[in-house]
Amino acid sequence: MFVDSVSREAPGGAASERSKLVGRAGVVGAGTLASRILGLGRDVALAAIFTRDETDAFFVAFTLPNLLRQLLGEGAVSGALVPVLSDTLEKGGDEAAQAFFARARGLSLLALTVVTVLGMLASSSPPATTTCPASSSAPSASRAPSFRTSSSWAPPRSAWRP
After folding, report:
1. Is the pLDDT of residue 20 over 60?
2. In 6-20, which positions are buried (b, 16+ CB within 10 angstroms) versus exposed (e)?
C-alpha cells in the first residue's frame, strides 16, 4: 500500500526507483526480524540445555566476536567505507567503485583470517571462564565446567591445567 502511494506521487522513473528502494528495505527488515527470532530461539535452547555456568562461558566466549562484529560490521568501518565508496563511484565511475570495493573486501577477508588464526592459537590457553569470568559467580579454575570439542586441533582438557 505504501509503495502504491509513493509511486503515484513520484514523477516518471523515480517511482520505479522508490518502489525498488522500499522493496529492498523490506527485505532488510524481514532479515533483521528473522535474525532476532532465531537469536531468541538460540537463547531459549541454551537456557534449556545448559547450566548457568556453561551459558556464562558461552556468552563470555562470544564477547570478542560480538565486539568485532559491532565495530567492523555495524560501526566505524561501515561509516567510513560508505562515504568513500560513494565518492569513488561519483568521481571514478562503476569500474573504480568496483575495484575499490574488491580491495576493501580483500582486506576485510585478510583481517578476518588473521583474527581467526589468532583466536584458534589462543584457544589452547585456559578456558574463558577462568580468564575473564562473566560474573562474580563464575566457576573458579578448579570447578570450571568440562567442555567437549569436536575440533581435532584443540588440545585435551588436561593441557589447560598447570
Report:
1. yes
2. eeeeeeeeebeebbe
The full set of domain ranges for the chain reads: 1-49, 51-162
SS (H, E, C) the chain: CHHHHHHHHCCCHHHHHHHHHHHHHHHHHHHHHHHHHHHHHHHHHHHHHCCHHHHHHHHHHCHHHHHHHHHHHCCHHHHHHHHHHHHHHHHHHHHHHHHHHHHHHHHHHHHHHHHHHHHHHHCCCCCHHHHCCCCCCCCCHHHCCCCCCCCCCCCCHHHHCC
* Entry field: residues in the chain: 162
pTM of the model: 0.43
**pLDDT in the model for residue 115:** 81
